[in-house]
# Entry
Amino acid sequence: MLTPAEAEKLVLENIPLWPKEDCPISRAHGRVLRESVLADRDLPPFDRVTLDGYALRASSLAAGVRKFQVEFVQAAGVRPGVMNPAADACIEIMTGAVLPAGADCVVPYEETARDGAEMTIAPGTGFAPGHAVHRRGSDHRAGDLIVPAGTRITGREIAVAAACGRAVLTVSRAPRIAVVATGDELVEVDAVVAPHQIRRSNDYALRAALAGAGFFYAERFHLRDMRQEIEHMLWHIIAEFDVVLLTGGVSKGKFDFLPAELDRQGVRKILQGVAQRPGKPFWFGLSQRQTPVFALPGNPVSAYTCLHRYVLPALGQASGLAPAPPRPVALAVPVTFKPKLACLLPVKLSSGPRAELLAAPAPGNTSGDFSGLVGTDGFVELPPGPAEFPAGTLAPFWKWV
Amino acid sequence: MLTPAEAEKLVLENIPLWPKEDCPISRAHGRVLRESVLADRDLPPFDRVTLDGYALRASSLAAGVRKFQVEFVQAAGVRPGVMNPAADACIEIMTGAVLPAGADCVVPYEETARDGAEMTIAPGTGFAPGHAVHRRGSDHRAGDLIVPAGTRITGREIAVAAACGRAVLTVSRAPRIAVVATGDELVEVDAVVAPHQIRRSNDYALRAALAGAGFFYAERFHLRDMRQEIEHMLWHIIAEFDVVLLTGGVSKGKFDFLPAELDRQGVRKILQGVAQRPGKPFWFGLSQRQTPVFALPGNPVSAYTCLHRYVLPALGQASGLAPAPPRPVALAVPVTFKPKLACLLPVKLSSGPRAELLAAPAPGNTSGDFSGLVGTDGFVELPPGPAEFPAGTLAPFWKWV
# Structure
């Protein structure tokens, strides 16, 4: 049976790259950038004043001039004036304004006194050339690469794009995702529930987690254990969506039926079964149109874990996102694990005395119920048992979105 | 002047708690829960079978019975049958089904052979009572608290709510936030830009960061440096929004004007100025209706830093979110900082050999330009200088959303 790393590799090798589309920056938050953003002009575009005060020549101060004549007020957003060449010339100036030609530093208000058109600076106060001036091009030269393709767009990248005059960015098209719960035991959350039934929760959880990862177009479906219904619905879903997530119906008992139907509909199996707990029945295939079909176990914790371990990284890669390896954490307590399976263990993180990330298994509940995941931060992956992992063991960590 | 901790305390003491509203779980992702979610019945609600195979009595196996008669098939989602009291009785059973009365364990298909109605288990194979059975109430008893109020709702909490029959949850009302850029030097991103002008980027950045933190209703405004425009627009904005974020106009030069206008409109100043770099001019007040008004510096890095240091924690508290102290990280390299101000330093995180979180300052660019924040993960707060902070110094870390 495949290891988790082998299964991940197979999934990532077979996932398509989605097409690009244009997106206005006001709606680009969370999308994946598919082009590089370059500086369209020097950044800053001019010698920018960084506080309110008086622009003058540092050499005048060094030569002992203390009384200055205020020539005019230079506001932000207007074309700069030219300073008189006299040594005692100065210009009252505002944050964000262009430093006028002839001046080379700005003295803050706090260091000055004003009387009519005369400004005085106390003896002994000196300022070097460039003080409170953010020099043109000191951050970036026109043409510099600022944001590389493959970046998940946040406020910072949007601000850079705006500063560079990019009102529209090329991003990955958002995939339409079908989240399909299967099983006759499931009833809707607001329906009357019999003692032998359970309410649909998996598809809600997966849809919310997809939204948390930036994939907002997910629609929920429910297939009952009826061949005709599965056949008919599955055909439509595979034809209409960019990604299909099935939950349930992949364990041994029913599996002869649902995968047979997938097979009949031309979905090619890429992998089935991973040597891990939970999530062993994980299944992945591609439709004839190369639509990825993920079949997750029906157990809620298994499905949620497989989503984070395989599906979200795959959707990230399909979006063109640069890969980000999981961060290591250290076990806070010893962990015993007997099965010959990789152990995907929900944990809560805390910080050690040297800023170590410490991972403590969720207390008690290991049953597969979602309630055991409330209060956890993600899961670690431990190699196959049987093993005693001492406290301090390093393990890669996947964060719940 | 206030320390960052004092400023934070003042903000949090003065921030209102927002009203509650009902929200369907399909739209609850990212909202803050304002009620507790209790188990409405035992979880699991019945003795639930966790794999496909045969339900039987463990005592029969222990007594040496190896050949069993399959009485019927028990599917998930149907009322359970009752097992024949004979020692060699068994029931073929599916994942998710109710364990029938009389059976106490489930033997997986893999351990069995089948011939007509007869099922055989190889000698030496034993299963304890409870094997592959998830006992009723073993996770939670009806009435147990599962998700406490004050939780940010993710897929896990939505799943728990769904499992407990809660189609609608009580959450904090989403605030309407005005993001107001000020300054004549700003032009729209798609406008022609003169050499002395810069494009609006701050308000885009803040709006996107607010969305990243789960606050989606943010509208952008631009006030030019004209008293009448400010007077008129400000009045409307303060009347119509739940939170007002101003950027720019709080540095010394213009500040006599914009705060005077805020004062005239009944906005009571709570704090002005924090001993920190960047973000020293940070200003916070409350309108007569107790609408929080945050005035952030116009410098992009200052505004973004103040948003994360003060505004987002305040909005979290106003939403009823349980407080989460910042995680400590360790400096990856020595840092020298001369001003007598707290140092809020953008950093990139990496992992050390013991899973320590190591924070490296962003290389080069410390000018306040957004481009210097691309590639950073957040910022650390160091105590006021002048000081040499050696590598390994622990500091609290705020993550960019």
Notes: Residues 300-318 of chain B form the longest helix (19 residues).
